[in-house]
Amino acid sequence: MSTSNAQAFPLEASEDITIPRPADWTRQDTEGTDMVLLSPPVRAGVFRPNVVVTSQPYEGSIAKLSTFAMAAALGELTSPHLIACNIWPHPAGDGRQIEYTHQMGNQILHVQRWTFAVDGKAVDVTATCSSTQLTAIDELFGYMAANIEFRKAA
User: Fold this and answer.
1) What is the reported pLDDT for 4?
2) In whole angstroms, what is the distance from residue 11 CA to residue 147 CA?
3) Radius of gyration in angstroms for the set of CA atoms belonging to the chain, rounded to a whole number
4) Residue 43's closest CA among 150, 130, 115, 121?
5) More confident residue, 33 or 8
């Protein structure tokens, strides 16, 4: 999907953020998350790309938060490989982009995670696809992340 047509990206909102959703993707309510966006259905045995938004109270630094996120990935996943942890500049305050792979069944999944510490909350936006899908979806994930907007705390 081309990211050049903003009309093809209606906005989805959680309590904390808005994020563009490709028109052919769907939103799913899943317990323990603020929002799950799913790509169109795929055939059996193929990973369905998705974006998951979560948040929780947090008063610490973004440096500490990104350390927690990387430690969780390395400690909880099968065969994780950390690729990068970069500063992610954002008008609401610098976040971190953490990129890694891990194994799930017979597939290698590629994860791009944008983590922010904003207004007393930790907000994570996690985009996942199989490593074989990355070249087709990487630009889309980048577009979605670049257009995250934080909603003002009430």
Assistant:
1) 56
2) 10
3) 15
4) 130
5) 33
Q: Is pLDDT at 92 greater than 90 in this prediction? A: no
Ordered alpha helix ranges (H), 2-154: 62-76, 134-146
Residue 38 CA to residue 144 CA, distance in Å, equals 13
- For the record, the structure tokens of 140 come out as 């889309």
Is residue 86 very low, low, confident or very high in pLDDT (cuts 50, 70, 90)?
very high
Closest to 12 in 3D by CA, of 116, 144, 114, 126: 144
Mean pLDDT of 1-20: 79
Helices within 32-94 (DSSP H only) = 62-76
| DSSP string for residues in 97-134 | EEEEEEEETTEEEEEEEEEEEETTEEEEEEEEEETTTH
Taking the C-alpha atoms of residue 59 and residue 132, their distance in angstroms, rounded to an integer, is 37
